[in-house]
Amino acid sequence: MMSLDVNKQVVKDFHQAIMIERNLNVIAQFLRDPFVDHSVPSESGSIASYTHWLQSYLTVFPDFAAQIEDLTAENDLVVCRLSLSGTQQAEYMGASASWKSFSVSGLQIYRIADGKIVERWSWIDTMRLRAQLGIVN
Amino acid sequence: MTTLQDQNKAHVRNYIEEVINHHILGRFSEYVPEDGIDYSSPPNVPRGYKGTEMFFTMFFEGSSDVHNTIHEMIAEDDKVSIISTISGTHDGNLMGLPATGKKFSALLLETVRIADGKYAERWGGMDIYGMMVQLGALQDPNQKALAEQYVKLVETYIGGVNNHDAAALRVAFAKDFHDHINAQVDVPQGVEGVVMAHGMLHDSFNDLQFVVDEHTVEGDKIAIRVHAIGTQTGPFYGFPASGKTIQWTAHRILRVENGQFIEAWNEFDQVGILQQMGIIPSFAPPPNPEANKALVRRLYEEENKGNVDIVDELMSPDFVMHGDALNPYQKGLEPLKAGALMTQAAFPDMVVTIEDIMAAGDRVIVRLRWTGTNTGSFMGLPATNKKITWTAMATNRIENGKIVERWFNSDVYSFLQQFGMIPS
Prior knowledge:
The complex is a heterodimer of chains A (137) and B (424). Helices cover 32% and strands 36% of the residues of chain A. With 137 residues, chain A is an alpha+beta fold.
């Protein structure tokens, strides 16, 4: 396989293990500790804090689903476009559980070195998500 | 040979740098076709360049200096993804929000499909939510989490310094980090300048340790107060190794952007370092431990005479007490006087004895014993008429002939036992 395909496979495997199978124990197989995290908000670049963030996110949206729509790569970067959905079942962004569902798009970009994610950027359509959940503050 | 991907990247770069960054509304149709689709645009916005024009008309009105800085471009087939930052000053009406004069900076991730040299499709967008939080238009329920993230980032930075770990510094500081440094060292900007500066510092003090004494987070900035300690094992500012243990204090304000420090301001006690190395003479009068001891002795002698107001003469009006359960943190002299009057009323025959006294530098340490008969009510409790005794130790800091600060621990436990408040 070309290295671009190898890098894409790392992102696919990471997505499969974490987002689909919810196997948070294997995060360290995919992420360098620490890694550079440009995402907002509140994630920070260690496996411990990333795991903690993910756990709390999955508590709010237990039915959270993420599907890869597109995957492109160049050099050491992999771009992953996602469809995201979930139902808010606990407090989120200061708003109590609404039991409303959202369905928005997201874009994640990963830098891969030696088969591991060393840097990550993440964008989610937060304004649309807030509108769908009825969060105003 | 120019590949399609190179051409597409050039299109994107031209669009961002020549049209968006020059705020030329009339040229959007050169880059976005009439039927272009932006999957993130609100439903009421028209398709194609008209929608793009509408968005940027509104954006340029809200910020006269909007600028898009490209960090990375990733091209495959007919798609280009761009990592960039949109920054500007909120000096006009932005999305219905009147000008605040605040600066903003938001991450922008987007993927575009280019057909015939134009943006046929676009996914992703900017962190509008983050921008609204920076402008104060939305509350940030994640402020606490964000503050924790900034503290973690500081831990990574300080860990990088203390463990001489350049990789940790590269995690904490952005590639294009800007240091507003006033130190007399010539290092480049960016994270590599940070790595180099701390490498030089480590060459001067190879066991250097930074300790964060305090941090404060507001908005996108964290302020830290630190002290540093290290042995000068190598040259510093061109002066040879002194082998001395040097301590100094510093303040730093660091601004976070996209999860890393993007700029920082710094003040540290450079002259203090050179004074301790013996290069520059000290400005402060040399400490006089014997005079300081006499001052502390006199304080307790006068207290034994019932002279509560002696504190005005011997202690600074800015006195700070770092006490314990019975004498909590206090500032100023009034709480001390009130406490002394309360104790006098409860124990009219109270005597304090200095059982030991030590002094060095600006510090005087005393070991004390109080003894008195509890004939008046104390803290709302009826008099026990018992003779009560308890001990304490205190560190006093003396500055310009006055006590300015005190750390205090007393045997509150046995004191309360004798009062019957804790079972013996």
